[in-house]
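So, who can interpret the following?
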Amino acid sequence: MIKRRKSKEINIGNVKIGNNNPISVQSMCNTDTRDVKSTVNQIKELADAGCEIIRLAVLNKDASSSIKEIVKLSPIPVIADIHFDYRLAIDCINNGINALRLNPGNIGKRENVEKVVKLAKQQQIPIRIGVNAGSLEKSLLEKNIPLHEKMVESALGHIKILEDLDFDLIKISLKSSDVMTTVKAYELMAKRVDYPLHIGLTEAGTLKGGLIKSSVGIGILLSQGIGDTIRVSLTENPIEEVHAGYGILKCLGLRKHGVNFISCPTCGRTQINLINLAKQVEERFKNYDKDITIAVMGCAVNGPGEARHADYGIAGGIKEGYIFKKGEIISKLPESELLDEFERIVKNEN
């Protein structure tokens, strides 16, 4: 069992972050925040997929004005992502935002930082300090130290600004597009502070490559007990980020959410269109929030036995298939009828 790093607990809306609370799964809308209807619709779709916290880009006054209605309609807590303009942060707090993503060193004069922090403290609004490797301060870029150390030094500088103002509702992220730079940054930061850590890679890539990089990086950190909330950043529909996040957590035994799906890699014995069948089964059960294991296996000779630990499964035959339960075959059907009957059995029994 993985021993979690001890971290300070904060609340983002009704979601508790840090300490021994479940590692939460986040995503970010790719809608225009000024478009309330589209943004709320996407938030609801993400929430249905299991997303627990959502982040929105707030680029201007019109976007910060939309926050009030979005927060009111959102089923999950909302974070405002703000760069440079302290007035947008104040607007978002006044409009009911649940948390901010804001680097205090980037919003100008100290008096402006003080205005934001004073209001955030009054309203108990956490601030995530989000350091990206590609946007470090010029003074740090000129230092002759490893990149991950520069990232940590940047974050510590922002943290000190908040702590000097007696503010400690802090969450930290240290993201790079390079796996090991990201890992080393979080490992170092985990030794320096006890604030909760939001982990992930930035600009990880498309679904295929980004998922590999994110799984490796996030997996390494989680296996060490580092990480209190995650986002798998992908150039893809944000729903895929949510599914990927839970997939990583399930693999490490850190969360139970929805179906555990397994399938064999196919071989010369396979007489059914297994790749297509496996994809269809996964698609039909992707939002099915039951803690069960489903298997799709290539042949009836070895399939049910090899996957007897699965609650339900399909084993292929010659243009037909067998439905099995805990390794025992319970039905045999033509390939064309297999999927519908399998879905009916599983959902009727659960």
The mean pLDDT is 92. Residues 147-164 form the longest helix (18 residues). Residues 263 and 296 are 5 Å apart (CA to CA). The radius of gyration is 23 Å.
